[in-house]
């Protein structure tokens, strides 16, 4: 089966989008002369999943993301979804026989539990549109139904229009409430999406302003956030692109946690803002649980037990649906300070996104290696190079056992071993953090800790 990947920059014009989607001119001058296929991953406990047509890989998608759009030959074919396990072997998720039709797009949406997922086929005929779009919608949230409302940007919910009722895994076509007699399609423009429980008017979700600016078919998917903020709803918009626009609830709460990296002193930290005043007593090297708060701007103050170290009114911004970890540490001037990083909201089941922080004051940069049983530092597949002091970086690891090795390279071929952990299991569905931090009991003066 012959396939051609179609690539779409995010900021191209609608007319350019239509021309690119055609894959070139055709003899019969049809706007969409081919069959098209795309994959969206809406399974909340999934791994990154690759799409195969007739055993040819066509790209993949993590949770809440989509593959590219591909042209395929018409007729019957075998569609397979696969993931890569910790041993770098392909594991089949599911396989099914499908049929492709000229002029039609087949969008495959994976939903439900990844151990026994459901694959939805949504096939529709593509059409040439001018200043209009077509809207399809579905819920990828199991055991939950919603009423979908939409309004023009700036309008309150009381002026919103009910579009349809959404049930898990069922695709509906949303009808435009202000369509004219000559064109039933939606006018391109700015809209707001609302969700309620069926038959009720208490708003569960409100989107920011969403720009429906392309003359194309949109698939609107309701899904839940994964990882720390897993109860928050999001709206994804899938079009003919690998870029999926995701919109969080504008009223969603946020979360934060604190880590005291000091090895010899407890800390008291105070977080204030939005009618919240929360005090936390942290023992040395203690990571707190996540605290749920309203989104907004907060002030953090902290001091150690004898008040010899302190800071006041450090800004912490928590956006809607966001979770952050705040690390309290001593800088090179030996004064107390903080850094914050955002936690991943992707599933932490098969793959784990770790935040790695370097608190080694004596080194301009540190290399961190995640070494599996059959690897050495030189052959390790997963590593972070030249992480600066007080810097943080993310890395995604498959479930497995890893030795975590921190080295300093002086650029002359000399490497200093700062710390080497025993083999540690990274296989729980939690948010992990790795810190290279001072430790007076270590030969190097530093240690590596794995926290969750």
TrEMBL record:
Protein species of origin: Bowmanella denitrificans
Residue ranges of every copy of the DUF4397 domain listed in the record: 35-119, 254-369
Coiled-coil positions are none
InterPro entries from the UniProt entry: DUF4397
User: Which named protein is this?
Assistant: DUF4397 domain-containing protein
**Signal peptide (from-to):** 1-18
What Pfam families does the record tag this protein with?
Answer: DUF4397
Q: Does the keyword Ligase apply?
A: no
């Amino acid at each position: 089966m012959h396939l051609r990947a179609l690539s779409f920059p995010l900021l191209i014009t609608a007319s350019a989008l239509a021309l690119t989607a055609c894959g070139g001119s055709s003899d019969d001058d049809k706007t969409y002369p081919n069959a098209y296929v795309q994959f969206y991953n809406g399974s909340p406990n999934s791994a990154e999943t690759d799409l195969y047509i007739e055993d040819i890989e066509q790209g993949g998608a993590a949770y809440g993301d989509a593959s590219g759009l591909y042209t395929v030959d018409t007729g019957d074919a075998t569609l397979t979804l696969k993931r890569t396990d910790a041993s770098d072997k392909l594991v089949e998720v599911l396989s099914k026989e499908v049929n492709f039709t000229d002029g039609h797009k087949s969008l495959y949406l994976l939903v439900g539990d990844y151990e026994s997922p459901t694959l939805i086929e949504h096939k529709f005929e593509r059409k040439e549109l001018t200043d209009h779009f077509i809207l399809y919608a579905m819920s990828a949230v199991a055991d939950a139904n919603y009423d979908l409302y939409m309004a023009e940007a700036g309008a309150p919910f009381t002026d919103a229009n009910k579009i349809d009722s959404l049930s898990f895994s069922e695709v509906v076509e949303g009808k435009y409430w202000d369509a004219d007699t000559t064109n039933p399609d939606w006018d391109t423009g700015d809209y707001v999406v609302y969700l309620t429980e069926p038959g009720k008017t208490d708003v569960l979700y409100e989107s920011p302003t969403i720009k429906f600016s392309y003359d194309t078919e949109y698939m609107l998917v309701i899904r839940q956030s994964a990882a720390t903020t897993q109860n928050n709803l999001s709206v994804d918009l899938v079009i003919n692109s690998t870029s999926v626009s995701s919109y969080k609830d504008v009223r969603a709460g946020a979360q934060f946690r604190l880590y005291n990296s000091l090895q010899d002193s407890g800390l008291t930290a105070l977080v204030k803002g939005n009618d919240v005043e929360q005090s936390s007593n942290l023992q040395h090297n203690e990571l707190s649980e996540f605290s749920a708060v309203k989104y907004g701007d907060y002030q953090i103050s902290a001091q150690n037990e004898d008040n010899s170290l302190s800071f006041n009114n450090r800004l912490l911004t928590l956006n809607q649906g966001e979770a952050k970890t705040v690390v309290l540490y001593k800088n090179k001037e030996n004064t107390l300070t903080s850094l914050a990083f955002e936690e991943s909201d992707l599933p932490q089941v098969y793959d784990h996104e770790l935040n790695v922080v370097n608190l080694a004051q004596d080194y301009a940069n540190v290399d961190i290696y995640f070494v599996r049983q059959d690897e050495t530092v030189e052959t390790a597949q997963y590593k972070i190079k030249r992480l600066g002091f007080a810097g943080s970086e993310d890395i995604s690891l498959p479930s497995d056992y890893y030795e975590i090795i921190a080295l300093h390279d002086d650029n002359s071929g000399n490497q200093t071993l700062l710390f080497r952990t025993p083999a540690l299991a990274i296989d729980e569905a939690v948010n992990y953090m790795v810190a290279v931090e001072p430790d007076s009991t270590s030969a190097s003066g530093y240690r590596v800790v794995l926290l969750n």
